[in-house]
Amino acid sequence: MNDLEIARSIKLEHIKDIAAKIGLSPDDIDQYGDYKAKIRYKTLLNLPRNPNGKLILVSAITPTPAGEGKTTTVIGLAQALNQLGKKAIATIREPSLGPVFGVKGGAAGGGWSQVLPMEDINLHFTGDFHAVTAANNTLAALLDNYIYYDNELKLDPRRVTWKRVLDVNDRMLRKIVIGLGGSKQGFPREDGFDITPASEIMAILCLSNNMDELKERIGNITVGLTYDGAPVKVSQLGFEGAITALLKDALKPNLVQTTENTPALVHGGPFANIAQGANSIIATRTALALGDYVVTEAGFGFDLGAEKFFDLVCKYGQFCTDAVVLVATVRALKLHGGAKLKEISLPNPKAVEDGLPNLAKHLENIDKFGMKSIVAINRFPTDTQEELDVVAKFVKEQGFDVSIVEYHAKGGAGGLELAQHVIDMVDKEVCHYRGLYDWNSSVEDKIFKVASEIYGAQKVDYTADAKADIKKINKYGFDKLPICIAKTQKSLSDNPDLLGRPKDFLVTVREVLVASGAGFLIPITGEIMRMPGLPKHPSAEVIDVESDGNISGLF
């Protein structure tokens, strides 16, 4: 059966019963039908801290275009922990419509380790993405309207930095001209769209601990510069209350269930190659209060999502990660070992062995954060035992535990050994996580620290635009913010064609954006785009709706 057929074969429990499993009553949730709910804000405010809650982060080696099964591993591991008698909750991001209709398809897990209802979660869900899009674009409209009329702060229309967003992969919208048609239509200027997961509003939603902080962060957003070059924030314009109002319900985490009726919180959706790549702090904190084991995910490879999780999310959320599960696959190692993408399903132990340096680098990076870790080899049907043995032997030689999992094919039962390893690991020691860099270091030092230690770069180069950006950042006091580097997910470097473990390479920073509301700087490297494009044959070609209203083609 395919993912959609498996999802429809599951007997879902009513969302009130799922809530009861983690100690919530019907009065604690707002139901969206029988199988989805949001946890009420008043409940969130009254949740006590659970001193025994354990946080397990799932990351991965540098992935293939289709991904290596991190989300499936998060869900499967939570199911396995529950099968072993533990109170576990999965916390993951909401899927973006861009990838769903583009290359990757859905992002709700796969096989017998999915979050359900799969069709709803992969499409409009509870409307959080639409709320973020509306909030972002309402701010854009208010800003242009302010300039159109009095413009008391003397905002320079040519230096507006706030872009509009849309949750669609659309390369045509990257650079546009708006305000054409004469004075009654506005004023012409260059603009552009980012995809909704790249919106600073999305980052803010996922980094806010409560409603007051959400409003404060929105007020701190820098929307552009005056004619004199001074930054202008939303709080100076007085729009933060209206924008927060649009996000009032979106701030509340979404409660759903897995294929084994394990509770799951699915909330927020920033990408890891252009934002922080983790679900919301408020969802993770809620799960830690309600469960004993919380399994969460950082997007793409460890060099992207996990680095940002440790250096940004953990610090803003004030929680400590107890262990890392690093997902590796035979097929990804083949790609990094020189096999062509279309041949990674063919047996090739030599290519697997040649790709192991990529895995080794990620293991080294885990150590830099002081983390305990175990490698989960996510088994695919095309993997041979010889190939699996090559990976397992190497991991053990590096001093790490390793476990082969089949969560896609078998649900929680496909990785009970991994779950027991995790239990033993996190119950032995207290968390001793450490960050990679000092936020008070210079912007250049922070960028070089990540680029050299995590990516393996020899040097960082800056374009003239990037140097000018850093000069303004220093002038206006944004230099103490942490960094959230936008970089390709296809390579440890900023060049997607450099696979394996590249060495002695140069990282080029094209510009450095200020996300003062979210509380970080965004160095843009290589040719990374904040608005993706669709492939020649997008997933949308096979998605359809049947006469009875059921959707087909989702995967």
Task: Give a short overview.
By secondary structure, the chain is α/β, with parallel strands linked by helices.
Notes on the protein architecture:
There is one protein chain. The protein is α/β, with parallel strands linked by helices. The strands form 6 sheets. Strands 1, 2, 3, 4, 5, 6, 14, 15, 16, 17, 18 and 19 form a 12-stranded mixed sheet that branches. A 3-stranded antiparallel sheet has the order 7-12-13. Helix 7 packs across helix 8 and helix 15 packs parallel to helix 16 (385-397).
Give average pLDDT, whole number.
94
Tell me the name of the CATH class of the largest domain: Alpha Beta
Helical percent range? 25-40%
Q: From the alpha carbons, calculate the radius of gyration and give it in angstroms.
A: 23 Å
For the termini, the CA-CA separation is 11 Å
Main sheet: strands, sense, barrel: 12 strands, mixed
Strand content: 15-25%
Protein structure class: alpha/beta
By CATH, the topology of the largest domain is: Rossmann fold
Count of alpha/pi helices? 20
Q: Report the CATH architecture of the largest domain.
A: 3-Layer(aba) Sandwich
Number of domains: 3
Q: What coarse outline follows from CA principal-axis ratios?
A: globular
- As residue ranges, the low-confidence spans are none
CATH homologous superfamily placement of the largest domain: P-loop containing nucleotide triphosphate hydrolases
**Total count of strands:** 24
